Amino acid sequence: MVKLRDQNIAFLIKLGYKLVSDEEAIWKDRWIPNVGLLINYLPTYANVNTDCLLRNLITRDGNWNISFLQEWLPKEIISHILGIPPPHPDEGPDRLAWRHTSTGAFSVKSAYTMLKADS
Questions:
Q1: pTM of the full predicted structure?
Q2: Digit-coded pLDDT (tens) for 36-71
Q3: Structural domain for 112, as ranges
Q4: How many domains does the chain have?
């Protein structure tokens, strides 16, 4: 029974890893600490693409698109966003690394091996 429990935990770790490694949809993902979903702050009349990605909030020179933010969000939420350094386009996308493999790639097998070692 312990083996099945460990396999289930390894699978859940994989699901969590997949969720956080996907690109951030700015309105529907929790990417700002202590703020929640930005879609909850949109005015009811808002006609905005709610599938917009984080990279769409960055200007060509690598800064936050403040005019876009001011059009749709309250000042206190904008101040939270401005407290986060914007991702720099020349550095490529952020990448998660799984520290339990030499390549940084996640696998259910590596999670299961890690769990067995901790038991």
A1: 0.57
A2: 899 999 888 888 888 888 878 888 888 999 999 999
A3: 1-22+98-119
A4: 2
| 116 pLDDT above the threshold of 50 | yes
Based on the fold, state whether residues 88 and 56 are members of the same structural domain: yes
> Which pair of structure tokens corresponds to residue 59?
């200007």
Clarify whether residues 36 and 63 are in a common domain.
yes
Q: Are residues 74 and 37 in the same domain?
A: yes
Q: Which 8-state DSSP code applies to residue 85? A: P
pLDDT at position 20: 47
Q: 26 near 53, Cβ under 8 Å?
A: yes
Q: CA 70, CA 44: separation in Å to the nearest integer?
A: 15
**Amino acid code (one letter) for 103:** T
Angle between helix 108-118 and 2-21 (nearest 10): 130
Provide the 3-class DSSP secondary structure of residue 115.
helix
Domain shared by 83 and 41, yes or no = yes
